[in-house]
Design a protein that fits this description.
Elements: E1 6-7, H1 10-13, H2 17-24, E2 28-32, E3 37-48, E4 76-81, E5 85-91, E6 100-110, H3 112-119, H4 126-130, H5 136-142, H6 147-150, E7 162-166, E8 174-177, E9 191-194
Antiparallel strand pairs: 1-7, 2-3, 2-7, 3-6, 3-9, 4-5, 5-6, 8-9
């Protein structure tokens, strides 16, 4: 278990998705219960800027499906994509203003065997570890994240069982690139990643 992780306060998320995304690099995602403790370092995220961002789910306005993105901040927004996997986001901005950050990759720290079981795979070598949480669908599966289970979950509270924490780690270098896997607003530099981390997906050149 990482040393003394403490949950991020709600005020951390009540800011621009750009700032939240950058500051999330190096933090921890934790799934905890009486029988489970999974933790992984956040190494790749993407910011989505709300109604002024054509690529954001909130761009067309508030709906029952995307209402979590309109606040309050610090809550999980989960969606199902391509008919086969879930994606984890956290709501940003003060309540009433849409914004979010998508989790794209994690570096697993504790509970790797349980993550592998959830992914339906086994850990034979270091390359197998890379398959656990590299990519939004993989990390959601490894952490048992689904829309029915986790949409609207409070990511600032350990009592929720899925939360984001700070253990004192500080990213030595952060790269910024355009977002990937989208068809709108593709040139915006809103993808943030821990430089030289092997768990990052599709590494591209930095654009600081």
């Amino acid at each position: 278990m990482p040393a003394n992780p403490h949950p991020l306060p709600r005020a951390f998320f009540a800011r621009s998705p750009r700032r939240v995304a950058r500051d999330l690099i190096g933090k921890l995602l934790i799934r905890s219960s009486e029988s489970t403790y999974l933790s992984a370092r956040i190494v790749e995220v993407e910011a989505y800027l709300g109604q002024n961002d054509p690529a954001a789910h909130s761009s067309a306005g508030r709906t029952p499906r995307n209402s979590v993105l309109f606040g309050p901040p610090g809550f999980a927004y989960i969606y199902f994509i391509y008919g086969n996997h879930y994606c984890l986001n956290v709501s940003c901005e003060p309540e009433g203003k849409a914004g979010g950050v998508l989790f794209r990759a994690l570096e697993p720290l504790t509970g790797l065997e349980e993550m592998a079981r959830a992914r339906g795979t086994a850990l034979h070598n270091s390359r197998d570890v890379l398959k656990l949480t590299t990519g939004p669908g993989r990390l959601a599966q490894a952490f048992g994240i689904t829309r029915s289970r986790d949409n609207g979950r409070d990511l600032t509270s350990p009592a929720s069982g899925l939360w984001i924490a700070d253990d004192g780690f500080r990213a030595p270098a952060i790269q910024i690139t355009p977002r990937i896997g989208i068809t709108k607003a593709v040139a915006r530099p809103l993808r943030y990643l821990l430089a030289n981390n092997r768990f990052v997906s599709h590494v591209r050149p930095s654009s600081k």
